[in-house]
Amino acid sequence: MYREKIEWGDLLSYAITGMSNEHPREARALRKTEEKDNYLKFYESMSAMEIS
Known about the structure:
The protein is 54% helix and 0% strand. The protein has 52 residues and is mainly α. It has a domain at 23-52. The termini are far apart.
């Protein structure tokens, strides 16, 4: 059934990209990995992108 494939609710990775004023493509890519709930690492990678 499709309900098992769809994630519901707030996802922090999307909030991080939104607060960074970035397109959510990185958040989508993260959700497809094994580290999809490692928000600290994702936040740090997004912060490093902003500095560059």
